[in-house]
Amino acid sequence: MKYITVSELKEKLNQSEPKVEVIDIREEYEYEDDNCGWKNIPMAQILPRVNEIPKDKEVVFVCISGKKASAIVSTLERKFKLDNLSVLEGGYTEYSQS
Questions:
Q1: pTM above 0.90, yes or no
Q2: 2-97 domain in CATH 3.40.250.10?
Q3: Residue 88 in 3-state DSSP?
């Protein structure tokens, strides 16, 4: 499993043509409270909506702390053989404090 730091993610997102997509797996009410405009697919909906995960670019999964994102990335890598996924270290909490 790959991890990405907040500074690495910000650098990738600031490129003129970002080759990364961020999927926020927090619950809708958490996302609505505070978000960065990333795609929101709550954790419970990830598997039924797996076809929405791009396969042609890096996809970073974000939750509050990084623990749930790690679990979902592990499942996706195992069940669907996806190898373009990573987890934001420290999750949304760390991102929002930077």
A1: yes
A2: yes
A3: strand
| 61: phi then psi, degrees, rounded to nearest 5 | -100, 135
Q: Tokens 């619950």 map to which residue?
A: 27
**Domain regions of the chain by residue span:** 2-97
Strands of the sheet with 39-40, listed across from one edge: 2-4, 85-88, 58-62, 20-24, 39-40
pLDDT in tens, the chain (98 residues): 999 999 999 999 999 988 999 999 999 999 999 999 999 999 999 999 999 999 999 999 999 999 999 999 999 999 999 999 999 999 999 999 99
Report the alpha-carbon distance of residue 33 to residue 29 in Å, rounded: 6
